[in-house]
Amino acid sequence: CRAAMSPPKVVSCPRCGVPVEWVPGNHHRPFCSERCRMIDLGTWASEGYRVPVEESDTDGESLEPPGENR
């Protein structure tokens, strides 16, 4: 019994939004091209993307959660 082949998943390139097939043959996935992949890498390298950090009132005094101080 041969399983039916389903169509490949299609995602949007995170850089330009072009539809991209998520298949093993696409070596740039999830990007559409080497160009978009390198632009994105450059943005990370130049700190253009930032992970949000929640500021605390303790300024790093204690790394233990409240109530667990020894």
How do the strands of the widest beta sheet line up side by side? Answer: 1-2
Name the quaternary structure. single chain
SS summary, helix count: 1
Count the beta strands.
2
Helix content: 10-25%
As residue ranges, the low-confidence spans are none
Gap from first CA to last CA:
64 Å
Layout of helices and strands, plus pairs?
Blueprint: E1 9-12, E2 19-22, H1 34-45
Antiparallel strand pairs: 1-2
Structural account:
The chain is α+β, with helices and mostly antiparallel strands. The protein is 17% helix and 11% strand. A two-stranded antiparallel sheet has the order 1-2. A hairpin with a 6-residue loop joins strand 1 and strand 2 (19-22).
Labels describing this entry:
70 residues, alpha+beta, elongated
Care to give the gist of this entry?
It is built from 1 helix and 2 strands. With 70 residues, the protein is of the alpha+beta class.
